[in-house]
Amino acid sequence: MQTQIPLPNDEQLAPDVRKTLNSVPPANIFRMMANAPTSLKPFIALATSILAQSEFDMRKRELVILRIAHVTQSHYEWVQHVRIAQIVGVTDEEINKIAVNGSVQGVDEEMQLLYRVAEEISLNVRLSDDALTAILERYGQRQATELILCCSYFNMVSRFLESTRVPLEDVAVI
After folding, report:
1. Which of 18, 70, 72, 147 could bridge to 158 as Cys pair (CB 3.0-4.6 Å)?
2. Residues 147-174: pLDDT tens digits?
3. Could you give the CA distance from residue 68 to residue 126 in angstroms, rounded to a whole number?
4. What is 69-99 written as a DSSP string?
């Protein structure tokens, strides 16, 4: 049996933490985060700012998140964000192109840049100067910052998921 941090049950959680969990989809990532109760609300708030309040295009965001999930080998993040990507109109063909080792082929120049940004942040931590210049020129200061924040956040998420060994839900929750 694989070692993992157990998901807390409702009886182990303070009432305010249970209330917070009841306000989000019943995803195991949130339940695992409840093991660190003071981080649960800020974790959700930051996710909400990235997923629901960012000016950065949601289809492109989901493609970037899927590339991060693939590069970091985060199965949970991949499965959940395939579902979200499909909801926002990403095609199966686009999804299948991402799940490759090496560079993603058959995409336009903009998507090559976005995948490069996702890969550089995931694998090198620091975005190269020329990639930073390219996203600033293409997206401007706000959306470039939102893109970098999205990549950084979902790298943190993949590391949290994989290190705590969050199990995938038996049914789709998102």
Report:
1. 72
2. 999 999 999 999 999 999 999 998 777 6
3. 14
4. HHHTT-HHHHHHHHHHHHHTT--HHHHHHHS
Domain presence at residue 5: no
pLDDT digits (tens, 9 = 90+) for 45-96: 999 999 999 999 999 999 999 999 999 999 999 999 999 999 999 999 999 9
- Cα diameter, the chain: 51
- Does residue 8 fall inside a structural domain? no
CATH number at residue 66: 1.20.1290.10
The answer to whether 70 and 99 are in contact (CB under 8 A) is yes
The residue range of the domain holding 71 is: 58-163
Provide the whole-model pTM. 0.94
Residue type, 87: I
